[in-house]
Write a structure and sequence with these properties.
This protein is α/β, with parallel strands linked by helices. It contains 14 helices and 12 strands. A 7-stranded mixed β-sheet has the order 2-8-7-6-5-3-4, with helices on both faces. Strands 9-10-12 form a 3-stranded antiparallel β-sheet, covered by helices on one side. It is globular and about 60 Å long.
Length: 344
Amino acid sequence: MLIDIRSDTVTQPTPAMRKAMAEAEVGDDVYGEDPTVNRLEALGAAMLGKETALFVPTGTFGNQLALFTWCRRGTEVIAGEDCHIVAHEAGAPAVIAGVQTRCVPDEGGVLKPQDIQKRLRKQDVHSPATSLICMENAHSLGRVVSLRDMDAVRNIADTWGLPVHLDGARIFNAAAALDCSASEIAARADSVMCCLSKGLCAPVGSLLAGTREFIGEARLKRKIMGGGMRQAGIMAAAGIIALKEHTALLAADHERAKMLANELAAINGISVNAAAINMVFFTLSGGVSDVLAGKIVKYFFDKGIVINPPEQGMFRFVTHYWIGDAEMARIIAVAKEVFGGNPL
């Protein structure tokens, strides 16, 4: 069986999840009659400290639904220049919500109040009004944002009377890294999206949480976006297990990532930029040509390990539920062969 460390999005449902899905009690969720979806939404809302939640197909769907619900068309959304909403959601804010994003530097995933302040605008004949500020925690580049830094963004939003949306795709990773509850992180935002897949192993689905009024409007907008999913309890059943059981397992993924980072850093010519969660980023001192990158990817694959080629010279290895001690030993051994022994 291949060892896949391209991303935690490659995780597959556990046997317990498959059993729960096969036996799930279902109904028509568009009518609000799927009992398993209802249980998932109630559980997610409680864990995130929000009044209620809405089951959606994907994290991108949840983020874009939040923008679609919060923002009037033609307005402007403040977001980090490297955040997932800007960098990896295919320009969806312009297509779905009809808004433009105004980017702020977000080194380490942190939005600085002074940078936000420079970009906030009231509507006039030349300018769109700012309608929303977006944060991300954990950041998709693997960084965790402190509660103090989140508070600074919350304060400026309150001063301007603006809502805050949190892309919390990996909020439970952030909670494990910060040693706090997910609800403490989500308290800094008016709406929050979290993924049930990735490190939590559910095969599909995310939650968007907020006030009853907000989620009521989002439920209508979900229908407009084609997200009414009828007997969705089959998928929600796996999400319940993800929240109840797998959130507690994420710290082990983080520890394995730290171990991998340390082993890679010990190899001559590798510079490691370890993330705070389950991701390890690293570069090679001599750089990586496309030809060399292809050889490295092939070498790992021939040894039974799937990796992505580097992006702008940066490799990323990701630990997750299906990467245990035996898999880690194999990954480290092959990394030492290819990067230390230089067999290419």
